[in-house]
Amino acid sequence: MIRSLFGPPDVDKLEQTRNIEGLIRALEYEKSSVIQVSAARVLAKFKDTRCVPWLIKMLKSENISVRMASVKALGDIGDPRALPHVEFMAQNTEDMEQEAAQEALDKLQG
After folding, report:
1. DSSP-derived secondary structure for 28-72
2. Full-prediction pTM beyond 0.90?
3. CA–CA separation, 90 vs 77, rounded Å?
4. Contact partners, residue 82, CB within 8 Å, separation at least 6
5. What's the confidence (pLDDT) of residue 3?
6. What domains does the chain contain, in order, with CATH numbers?
7. 40 phi and psi angles, rounded to 5 deg
8. CB–CB of 26/35 below 8 Å?
9. How far apart are CA 73 and CA 106, in angstroms?
10. How far apart (Å, rounded) are the C-alpha atoms in residues 9 and 27?
């Protein structure tokens, strides 16, 4: 019983119940970049702006997959608060990461 209470977040269940707060907590779950990436993708689908500050924070993750999923989510959500952070990423990264940031920037600048 304790394991189910304190185990890793179940992103599929959080998605099914549209639990934005739970998805934000999953985004912060540093033990698994897979969970973080999944949470970012689901949050992007919901386009709920409550998660924008956490997605911005994830742009500084050490994991490139987390950074890329977060920047893509910010572009999909379209909240202008993300603009300076995505611009910075587009100007200060390379290759796939820069491309993802530029695509997000294009969406934000619409």
Report:
1. T-TT-HHHHHHHHHHHHHHT-GGGHHHHHHHTT-S-HHHHHHHHH
2. yes
3. 17
4. 52, 55, 56, 74, 75, 104, 108
5. 41
6. 2-109 (1.25.10.10)
7. -60, -40
8. yes
9. 13
10. 9
